[in-house]
Amino acid sequence: xxxxxxIRSRVGFLTGALxxxxxxxxxxxxxxxxxxxxxxGIGAAAIGLAIGLYAISAAVATVLFGPLFDxxxxxxxxxxxxxxNLAVSLAFIWVPNLEMLIVGRILAGLANSALALxxxxxxxxxxxxxxxxxxxxxxxxxxxxxxGAITGLALGGLCAGLGQPWLYFAIVAxxxxxxxxxxxxxxxRMRTVTAAQTVAEAGASVDADAVHALETxxxxxxxxxxxxxIVGFMREPQTILLLVATACxxxxxxxxxxxxxxxxxxxxxxxxxxxxxxxxxxxGVLLGALINQWSLGRRGPRGVYGRAxxxxxxxxxxxxxxxxxxxxxxxxxxxxxxxxxxGMLGPLQPTIMIGWYPDxxxxxxxxxxxxxSIGAALGPIAIGALAAVWSLSGAVLIGVGVALVxxxxxxxxxxxxxxxxxxxxxxxxxx
Length: 431
Description:
mainly alpha
């Protein structure tokens, strides 16, 4: 069967390949959205609405899917999510009107929500007995997400520059088809790691029937038990602080993405500059995730989260000032700052929640995803509307105010976390 550490590494790599599909199909849409809007005769506010509806759809789906992952194994949900993502990408090759665009974005939100929760649950289960490694594993997962974001945004920017949005959707569909083909392998590895963990913990062999039972044992005993657990942790002040701060960070990040798309559509830079600028934020997110893995060896996740969040208003302010200039280098610097800070914050949000509620890892992950989706929905809608009546730089300043709110909440949350891997049970809300 191989060592447990090697099995975990293989599961981590396969899960990483899976999560690449999410930003590839989500963020890559943003650079081509302005071009699609022009060809369909749709204004910036309507395109911002389509982007926001994706996030709203993902939030609604996460509310429904989160408890399901506490009741049913991932293998019953994951294949359907990949199939829907593939179908939407194929349909977008021939998108004829706003209605189809909106329906497709809603379905994409549903599918990617399930993909995100699948990945989060897989990591939580693979490292359920090693919280320190779990913290770093979520940061490692973020590197794959960032890779998908860099690829998606570069691809979207390139296709927008070429005036061929259909090419972007065709490439995404091809990658989704590859993921669909390797999904059975991902599911087999999940069963292997479940068995290996049990062997390591109990020192006994586990047959196929036992593995099947263990895959479902992690779930709560009944829907009523899941519902009681959700109601319980949603009433805790610490949970509320984390979720509101999560929404604020997502607002800032998605505002940066859509603001850049509007800026590039306005100034019409050459294709090389367009492509470079579109990948700056995900490059920053990737760097932030790498910084995270080093920081988690020195402080606990709440401590890192509280300190990193203090930098987000500053990064947003740098971006707002940069947008007042006509210098692409200044734009890139502001976008990079926002990306680095958000790259540090993103992986810490689910690992903190799952550390509090390991027995409800699906619902805990879902609550974080819902908060991220709310912020991602409000950010583009707000920046599109404010930029239309005010200015793009002024709209970004509103995001700075949102970041300040989140920073205060994160600072309160991070109090008392003075070392790496502090026992979360001492801080966790009562269960």
